[in-house]
Task: inverse folding
């Protein structure tokens, strides 16, 4: 189930931990496997990662469901990870999320019809200084306003 | 030892131990949910916050280590305020469904909430709801009630040895659930019910039955294996409604196996034998006890006693009998002059048996640094013994297994799938190396043995260990070299200073041996009795299609026209009613007082938790009255405790065993080990419905590898000896391991 390429990546992560602690590589392993499977993890893929790292399936599932960067539903080409934790919330994240949803015509957790964008509410991304904020790919976008959101979203291809 | 102060009281404690351990020892009450004395510390519920002088914030008692001069307040304003605050948080999402919750009345959350909870919740938002998941027939889930203490998760990970439950999601989405759709499969899973402090995990068979305060809790002993786990039978109006675990560090610590916990369900099965019956002109007739016993005595007189033909009488008993029952039955038979007595029913050749003595106390097992398991799937056959060995392995012991299959061990085991016929040779190789190293003379049978890589490894492992244990298991009883394996193991143990455990017969088998429930030199054993021309049998709780190795021979011997058979049974059985002349209904587990002898030789007595249903009577009473009617001396017992006094005066005769060793090679193309699946090992278990539909109860496979299947021309759609074939590469070549939850295919090739 895991491609040789992903296995190679996982193996290199395993070497960074002490012998017998291969399960410490679970986050990177899940990431590598997810990247090769439409940016999404299935039950079977999580089990496959757990088996590969010789850990119980549920332990890998705990990690895979704790962190927001693993997807368990189909996602668009771009995922807008909107922080809704305390700093962002106090700075109006909730209203901005409503704005974004209205603009894209989807609810959080859904994908736009063209499959381009999906929106996800996530926990704190550690950028409270620039709240409210979201993340697309590896890029953080801070001090968001409705105008700024429109501009960013319109620029997504 | 350091001196600390708790609530103004001076207390001695070990530095480094946790505050909560000290308060528990001193009977100072500190509320808690996630802390459990046998599990790792998680400190996640925060309920045990106490005030430690000098610390700015309240500290969790479960994870604050003791230090010299510590001053702790468990009940001052700061401590109580913190505890109440935590309680308020815990109740935010907890439903107010105590009236329909099975845990009500024995709920840790309920108890603590009474003391620390507020009457009114300040939380006006909606409570979260978590959909229940079906995790099997034994445990009912109501996860909305879960407070995320993670005791069940830690239990699975640390005690059961397979992490099945886990905490998925995050924050308000956090859920405790299993990952696998098949739910919880551990042989110890029921303990999750006991550790759950709320009503999230409760007993499924007990669901909506009763409140805890309506039942009486009676201490009792489990008799399904060699451990004798301590437990409580909880009863209501004469029925056992639930079983929960008891504490005994020398026996079962605080855990019991699912087998011990759920077997009680069989007690109320419709198949119970409820009234004495006699067979008149081929027709069964329900009669009063005195008529039935009189009929039994007349039959014995007619067939045996009048002609003084005691050699034609045989007595057989199941290993599940109590010490008292076994003692009385052999006494009754011997008083009559009968020496044909045996409890070893499922052994192919009784001149070739395992007779190794067990020399290790159960609790010491967790301190070994090396263990060699030969012929056992300990996890399913002796779960609590496996648990001790697992603890040893986790603290560094090396465990090696010589099994026909690489079983699903729940700890690290070096496993070498090995054909049964190679075990004796392997042990001989090890013994040869050991004797060579000790520069001792080799017995003749070892001269031709040549050590190989595996035997060298095994010998080295044994030599390197300081405290090793050799364990012989049930799969060996019908090994063609059983006696040799037993003797070789004893020799190896002597040379390596190892202790030994003989787990080849289960339940009360050690007691049966001790009570002399085996023939002396003039008597016949089980198999000889069936070959001989017998006139009468006295049978204690025997079910031929499950209990005998030679079931077809047994059945034909018992079914002969002129053989008078008295059967004491707890359950009715078609075959028993075919061959018996009298059927006497007997009390089952939990229904009689008695004693169980475990692997340590520890005798644990118990009283009856309920009385037997219908006309069924405790066996000791039946045997006593039968002895009186037969006018045998020395049966004036008022209760089973008086029988026990007689037992302690019993001098145990030790038997001479053949110490020779014969090394043979494989004689058949394919070797077969035939075992009952774990929840089929005695009659009560076979009638426990929830166990039988559980994952382990459903085990019914003839395992073999692909090449063996090819030899036998079988595929995984076929069956072998009536059992579905499973093709699995963890089997030794040319071997089949059958674990069946069905009766023996009588007349089959077994």
Result:
């Amino acid at each position: 189930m895991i491609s040789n390429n992903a296995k190679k990546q996982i193996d290199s992560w395993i070497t960074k931990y002490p012998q017998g602690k291969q399960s410490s590589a679970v986050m990177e392993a899940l990431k590598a496997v997810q990247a090769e499977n439409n940016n999404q993890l299935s039950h079977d893929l999580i089990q496959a990662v757990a088996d590969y790292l010789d850990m119980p399936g549920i332990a890998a599932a705990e990690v895979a469901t704790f962190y927001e960067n693993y997807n368990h539903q189909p996602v668009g080409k771009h995922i807008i990870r909107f922080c809704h934790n305390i700093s962002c919330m106090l700075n109006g994240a909730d209203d901005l999320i409503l704005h974004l949803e209205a603009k894209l015509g989807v609810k959080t957790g859904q994908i736009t019809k063209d499959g381009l964008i999906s929106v996800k509410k996530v926990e704190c991304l550690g950028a409270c200084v620039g709240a409210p904020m979201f993340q697309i790919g590896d890029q953080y976008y801070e001090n968001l306003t409705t105008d700024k959101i429109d501009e960013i979203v319109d620029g997504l291809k | 030892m350091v001196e600390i102060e708790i609530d103004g009281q001076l207390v001695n404690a070990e530095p480094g131990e946790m505050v909560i351990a000290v308060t528990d020892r001193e009977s100072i009450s500190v509320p808690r949910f996630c802390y459990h004395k046998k599990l790792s510390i998680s400190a996640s519920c925060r309920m045990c916050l106490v005030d430690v002088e000098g610390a700015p914030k309240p500290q969790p008692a479960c994870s604050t280590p003791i230090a010299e001069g510590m001053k702790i307040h468990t009940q001052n304003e700061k401590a109580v305020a913190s505890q109440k605050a935590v309680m308020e948080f815990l109740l935010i999402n907890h439903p107010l469904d105590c009236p329909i919750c099975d845990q009500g009345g024995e709920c840790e959350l309920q108890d603590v909430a009474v003391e620390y909870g507020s009457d009114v919740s300040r939380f006006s938002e909606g409570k979260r709801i978590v959909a229940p998941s079906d995790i099997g027939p034994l445990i009912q889930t109501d996860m909305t009630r879960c407070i995320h203490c993670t005791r069940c998760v830690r239990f699975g990970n640390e005690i059961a040895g397979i992490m099945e439950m886990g905490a998925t999601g995050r924050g308000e989405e956090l859920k405790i659930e299993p990952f696998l759709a098949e739910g919880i499969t551990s042989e110890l899973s029921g303990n999750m019910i006991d550790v759950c402090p709320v009503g999230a995990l409760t007993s499924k068979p007990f669901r909506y039955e009763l409140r805890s305060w309506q039942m009486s809790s009676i201490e009792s002993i489990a008799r399904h294996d060699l451990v004798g786990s301590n437990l409580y039978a909880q009863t209501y109006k004469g029925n056992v409604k639930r079983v929960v675990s008891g504490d005994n560090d020398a026996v079962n610590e605080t855990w019991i196996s699912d087998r011990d916990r759920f077997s009680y369900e069989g007690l109320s099965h419709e198949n119970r034998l409820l009234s004495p019956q006699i067979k008149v002109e081929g027709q069964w007739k329900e009669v009063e006890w005195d008529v039935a016993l009189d009929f039994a005595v007349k039959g014995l007189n007619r067939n045996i006693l009048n002609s003084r033909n005691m050699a034609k009488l045989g007595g057989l008993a199941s290993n599940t009998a109590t010490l008292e029952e076994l003692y009385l039955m052999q006494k009754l038979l011997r008083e009559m002059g009968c020496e044909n007595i045996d409890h070893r029913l499922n052994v192919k050749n009784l001149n070739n048996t395992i007779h190794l003595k067990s020399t290790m106390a159960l609790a010491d097992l967790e301190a070994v640094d090396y263990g060699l398991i030969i012929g056992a799937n300990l996890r399913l056959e002796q779960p609590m013994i496996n648990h001790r060995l697992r603890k040893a392995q986790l603290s560094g012991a090396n465990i090696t297994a010589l099994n026909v299959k690489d079983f699903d061990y729940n700890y690290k085991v070096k496993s070498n799938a090995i054909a049964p016929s190679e075990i004796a040779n392997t042990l001989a190789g090890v013994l040869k190396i050991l004797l060579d190293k000790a520069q001792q003379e080799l017995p003749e049978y070892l001269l031709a043995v040549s050590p190989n890589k595996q035997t060298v490894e095994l010998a080295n492992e044994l030599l390197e260990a300081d405290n090793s244990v050799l364990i012989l298991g049930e799969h060996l009883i019908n090994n063609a070299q059983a006696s040799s394996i037993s003797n070789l193991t004893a020799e190896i143990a002597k040379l390596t200073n190892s202790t030994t455990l003989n787990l080849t017969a289960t339940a009360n088998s050690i007691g049966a041996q001790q009570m002399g429930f085996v023939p002396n030199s003039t008597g016949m054993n089980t198999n000889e009795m069936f070959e001989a021309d017998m006139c009468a049998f006295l049978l204690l709780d025997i079910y031929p299609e499950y209990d005998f190795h030679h079931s077809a021979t047994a059945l034909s011997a018992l079914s002969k026209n002129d053989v008078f058979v008295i059967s004491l049974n707890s359950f009715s059985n078609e075959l028993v009613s075919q061959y018996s002349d009298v059927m006497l209904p007997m009390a089952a587990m939990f229904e009689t007082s008695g004693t169980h002898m475990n692997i340590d030789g520890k005798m644990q007595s118990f009283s009856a938790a309920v009385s037997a249903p219908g006309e069924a009577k405790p066996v000791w009473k039946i045997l006593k009255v039968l002895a009186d009617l037969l006018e045998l001396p020395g049966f004036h017992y008022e209760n089973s405790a008086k029988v026990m006094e007689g037992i302690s005066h019993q001098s145990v005769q030790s038997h001479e065993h053949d110490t020779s060793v014969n090394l043979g090679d494989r004689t058949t193309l394919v070797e077969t080990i035939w075992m009952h699946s774990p929840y089929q090992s005695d009659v009560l278990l076979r009638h426990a419905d929830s166990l039988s539909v559980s994952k382990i109860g459903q085990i019914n496979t003839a395992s073999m590898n692909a090449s063996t299947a090819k030899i036998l021309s079988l595929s995984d759609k076929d069956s072998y000896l009536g059992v579905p074939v499973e093709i699995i590469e963890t089997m030794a070549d040319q071997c089949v391991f059958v674990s069946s939850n069905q009766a023996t295919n009588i007349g089959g090739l077994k």
Remarks:
- Chain A touches chain B through 13 residues (CB under 8 Å).
- Chain A has a mean pLDDT of 95.
- Helices of chain A lie at 4-14, 26-35, 43-52, 57-66, 86-90, 93-104, 146-154.
